[in-house]
Specification:
about 290 residues, 10 helices, binds adenosine monophosphate, single chain, about 15% strand, two-stranded antiparallel sheet, Rossmann fold, 10 strands, alpha/beta, binds zinc ion
Length: about 290
């Protein structure tokens, strides 16, 4: 099979009947990322959240090719048995290949807690901690954005999960960017891989020999999102050209939702964003103290 752009032998099927050589696949992937960066005017200093996995490694590699962005990679050591150690190792390797120094936020050293030892932990605690600390890191260092490696598949899973729980207002949280709030401790968030499916970022990482850790979090087996991901993957397999439309349809529905249903409040204790008087992060810290 020939590449859709040149006469080289194709190494990857992009979409139905669209094959590409490595060079043109890379160009296509970067183009997807560039469309998010340019459309939403993402510029300046970007905190890039690196987990050690393929998505955030790909995200970091691609963002580092934009000359007008200043990249600040960071990793949160969550304290999960061997898993966190392996993630950290991969983070160091990815960053050293790109000649970047990662900032490490150590949950144990800084807050005296680990996910392993968290009392009565819920699946969502990990997400709460990651969201909170990434925003705090960017805010304290006066950075303009937090970038994460979330892709189209993750977004589908997020949508399914919330709709299954009847939480329609959570759709206000979807989209390639979530804006900052002037004068508040809320930094804008961007998902540069928003228009790429998981298998596409994986293919990019493998083809370009980006180092990443393949292990899965030991707690993810119990997460409801693990089975929803299988559903998203089936949809992507049978409708590779249409899943983007599905997510875009939800983005249109988001536009119609009344924003006041999901008004951002700020924690009375730490003044970072919260859904109630005291934010979930402060509650987690309090409960483990
Ligand atoms: P996940 O919630 O594990 O699917 O990860 C989604 C995104 O959150 C990743 O692509 C990273 O950008 C970010 N992320 C996840 N875990 C970490 C971590 N331990 N430290 C920093 N960023 C993370
Ligand atoms: Zn080509
Ligand atoms: Zn708080």
């Amino acid at each position: 099979m020939k590449c859709y752009k040149c006469n080289e032998k194709a190494v990857v099927l992009i979409r139905r009947k669209k094959y590409a050589c490595k060079e043109h696949f890379n160009q296509w992937v970067r183009g997807r990322v560039e469309s998010v960066i340019r459309k939403f005017k993402v510029k300046g200093k970007i905190a890039v959240a690196i987990s050690g996995g393929k998505d955030s490694a790909t995200c970091l590699k691609l963002l580092s090719t934009f000359k007008d962005l200043q990249i600040f990679p960071f990793h949160i050591n969550l304290g999960i048995k061997n898993y966190s150690r392996n993630c950290l190792k991969a983070v160091r390797k990815i960053c050293s290949e790109l000649k970047l120094e990662p900032h490490i936020i150590d949950l144990k050293k800084e807050y005296g807690i680990t996910i392993d030892k968290l009392k009565g932990k819920k699946c969502s605690d990990c997400g709460t901690i990651k969201r909170y600390l990434s925003n705090k890191f960017a805010f304290e260092n006066k950075l303009d954005w937090v970038a994460t490696g979330h892709n189209l598949t993750d977004e589908l899973v997020f949508i399914f999960n919330n709709l299954l729980s009847g939480q329609v207002s959570q759709l206000l949280r979807i989209g390639p960017v979530l804006p900052s709030m002037k004068g508040k401790k809320l930094v804008g968030r961007v998902k540069p891989l928003y228009f790429l499916m998981e298998r596409e970022t994986e293919k990019f990482a493998i083809l370009n020999e980006i180092p990443f850790y393949k292990g899965k979090c030991p707690y993810s087996k119990e997460a409801p999102t693990t089975s929803l991901k299988k559903i998203a993957e089936i949809l992507e397999k049978y409708y590779p050209d249409k899943v983007k439309n599905l997510v875009n349809s939800f983005l249109k529905i988001k536009e119609k939702l009344p924003e006041e249903k999901f008004k951002t409040k700020f924690c009375k204790k730490c003044s970072y964003p919260s859904l109630s008087k005291i934010c979930k992060f402060c509650k987690i810290i309090q409960a483990s103290g």
